[in-house]
Write a structure and sequence with these properties.
Helices cover about 30% and strands about 25% of the residues. With about 375 residues, it is α+β, with helices and mostly antiparallel strands. A hairpin with an 8-residue loop joins strand 12 and strand 13.
Length: about 375
């Protein structure tokens, strides 16, 4: 079974191994045991409510329960830009015109911006190579929206993600080489790592405050602005399916796009539904397992309502009825729920027609207000 749960201290070595395999470019999860341990402690403080809600970092582990090992991670930063200023470039157009000469010039520009301040960010998505495919990345990504749906008051109305921009196998960024290096005496990977770790004051001190005129940059640098790294393309596609769109902001180091959505418009949240738990008998479970009845069925995500011990896994769509969801004892125990408890469900992939219809009916009936 694959189970989403809060990241724990004993996940450090598995997390370190994944960070090492990810290579350069994933600056929020550096291959540094000390820094990763610090992030885990921060996440534990968030789930245990030992830090201010706006400063919380929620990190979720994807556990393979047979291996008893963390095989993936994803996260939510409750608010950005409150402690350290959060910077992006906004893509804009500067217009210059002369009636006398009959000239009208539109020049694309980059403006240093703090527009995402006080907005929730989804971040730190990383999956072990051994568990890629089969919808595991979807589960790891979309579990975050189920948590945000349950605990709306801890997050902003809008959520965004900074996508990794274009860089080569050595970690070199065309945009950084053409722009950042003119103002920072350091390599791209060093500057991006410092930024990812929250040390952003140097940006305000050294970055030019005036607009950057894109025609003054080389073609190689202009070509990567708003583009994602090849390894990040699947993550971008997942977010676009959830309703995220490019908002005109890009990363100041590698030019990767920023995508955003209003929380109430996120597909997982719109298609979610409440159900009451019923426990399946072991005999029925064994018969269905032998028959292989669920192998080709769409999967539905199921989460409990616990803040401190939030859990998510998947079940076959046929287990969901108009008012209930039937769970095996194993899955119920993994989620920490019992018969009669209320759980939250959402389709893992495309909306399942019947489940979505039931979910909307329940929402309209006021089962769970937002």
């Amino acid at each position: 079974m694959l189970l989403i749960r809060p990241l724990q201290e004993n996940d450090l070595e598995a997390l370190y191994a994944m960070a090492q395999s990810a290579g350069k470019g994933l600056t929020t999860l550096p291959a540094d045991r000390g820094l990763l341990a610090k992030k885990i402690r921060h996440a534990r403080d968030a789930f245990d409510q030992r830090c201010a809600p706006e400063a919380a970092l929620y990190l979720f582990a994807l556990e393979d329960t047979e291996l008893k090992q963390c095989v993936g991670i994803s996260g939510i930063q409750a608010r950005v830009g409150l402690d350290e200023v959060f910077y992006n470039y906004r893509l804009s157009v500067t217009v210059n015109a002369s009636r006398e000469l009959g000239v009208h010039v539109r020049t694309p520009t980059l403006h240093l911006s703090n527009d995402m301040t006080d907005t929730s960010e989804i971040c730190s998505l990383l999956l072990s190579d051994s568990h890629r495919g089969g919808g595991n990345g979807l589960l790891l990504s979309r579990c975050r929206f189920m948590f945000m749906d349950h605990f709306r008051k801890h997050f902003s109305e809008k959520v965004f993600a900074e996508m990794r921009g274009v860089s080569d196998k050595d970690g070199r960024s065309p945009l950084w080489d053409a722009l950042g290096r003119k103002f920072f005496d350091m390599e791209f990977t060093q500057a991006d790592t410092l930024s990812g770790l929250g040390n952003k004051s140097f940006i305000a001190e050294l970055m030019p405050k005036f607009p950057i005129y894109l025609p003054m940059l080389p073609d190689e640098a202009r070509a990567v602005i708003g583009r994602v790294h090849d390894n990040t393309a699947p993550a971008l596609k997942m977010l676009q399916a959830e309703g995220f769109n490019f908002n005109g902001m890009v990363d100041i180091f590698d030019g990767g796009p920023v995508v955003e959505a209003f929380v109430h418009n996120v597909r997982t949240i719109r298609d979610s539904m409440d159900r009451i738990v019923m426990i399946r008998s072991k005999t029925a479970e064994q018969k269905q397992a032998l028959a292989g009845e669920h192998e080709s069925e769409p999967e539905i995500m199921v989460c409990n309502g616990s803040f401190q011990d939030f859990r998510v896994t998947t079940v076959p769509a046929s287990w969901v009825s108009l008012d209930t969801v039937s769970l095996s004892e194993t899955i119920a125990d993994a989620l920490g729920v019992s018969a009669g408890d209320r759980v939250r469900l959402a389709p893992l992939k495309e909306a399942v027609a019947g489940a979505t219809k039931y979910g909307r009916k329940n929402k309209h009936a006021g089962i769970r207000g937002h």
